[in-house]
User: Fold this.
Amino acid sequence: MSGAPETAESASAEETEALGARLARELRPGDVVLVRGELGAGKTTLIRGACRELGVESPVTSPTFTIGLRYAGRIPISHLDLYRLGDLAAEDPALLDDYLDPATVAFLEWPAVAEPRLADRSLREVRIEHAGGERRRIAFGAATGRE
Assistant:
């Protein structure tokens, strides 16, 4: 999944998790993965697969109402869901700093609000689209810009 953008299709949650695991094999501490897709597209499912590959044994759930969760794996993992945030200016300036550090792999759902603060980070991007029924089209690559 390195180099040129890659697209894959998934027909089930299990296949989406497997694609997340495949992505995780390339991640290193300090990487930030911007995960884009509409509601119900499978963002957390893909992140769950990545977390499992990185050694997380605890439940991996969406942090929509808590903003962020941390997981202990072979390396620390942060999972943020910024859906409810309209603007980081109204938040604690250190909100992202608590989750994004050089020793951590971070996954950001709904990342647009945070992108201005990520210019100095190693960014990857995943876009998940509904493709009818349970099917999903998933594109992996370098971060290209806003949602």
